[in-house]
Amino acid sequence: MRRRKTPWVSYLIIAAGSVMMIFPFLDMIFSSFKGADEYNRMSYSLLPDSFRWDNYRQAIESLQLGLLFRNSLARTVAVTALVLITSSMAAYALAKLRFRGRGFVFQFIVSTMMIPGFLFFIPNFYLVTHFPLVGGNDLLGNNGYGGLATSMLSLILPFSVSAFGIFLMRQFMMTINDAYIEAARIDGASEFRIFFTLILPMALPALATLAIFEFIGQWNEFIWALIIYSVNPELATLPVGVQMLKDHLDPSLTQPLLMAGLVMTTMPVLIVFIFLQKYYVRGMMNSGLK
């Protein structure tokens, strides 16, 4: 009854939280249209004196946006697709197939989520640079000139399997009634046919949720991309390009250009979320994650 009498309190809290979340994003957008003198002015103003669309042209030219966007998009789409495939197949095996050690395998996969990701950077870099028979390497991975570190595969393969993705998909598939699978088996369907024609369509909300997480995470991934950039600058991604622009140009003159670059970097993520948000909410509810 109290909630019914004072709904404005809830609305006020939600509105305040929304403003706190949206304001930095709006500041980034409007700052991308400002001049250098406006950005460094002591008196703060959200809106620019005049909208300078030329900032975006200069940002595109300074950042080599075509190359960076192509690398980021190719890497993000490939990693997301691989994670969806590997996570859903592993989750189906762990949720619906009976085999010895299934519980131990799942617990081991979940336990790897507790290990900080940066601890894998050194061994992963060693693996991609000494990959056998690639980049001039011999059968033992020696005597080469970079191995996989000089190709796009170095940005993709280390992230092609996700422990969180397996956990999320497994939790969702546990909610699927086994009667559907048993009926398909009685009709003579193979496990692959059951998986691709029965399980995957039913797991679409969880797949969309995982796709959003992976797309955002891989699109914004910086440290590994920076490591590979040190080997082959042609593999630079958008986060690396924005950082390079910040390091090599005068910050007092290029802040609006950086903001323009950040806006262009953020837009693909927002577009993906807008189109998949309804599946995201449904997948989070059905996967038992509150």
Automatic annotation (TrEMBL):
Residues 69-276 form the ABC transmembrane type-1 domain. CDD domains: TM_PBP2. SUPFAM superfamilies: MetI-like. The chain crosses the membrane at residues 12-33, 73-95, 104-128, 148-168, 194-216, 257-276. Keywords: Cell membrane, Membrane, Transmembrane, Transmembrane helix, Transport. Belongs to the binding-protein-dependent transport system permease family. This is Sugar ABC transporter permease.
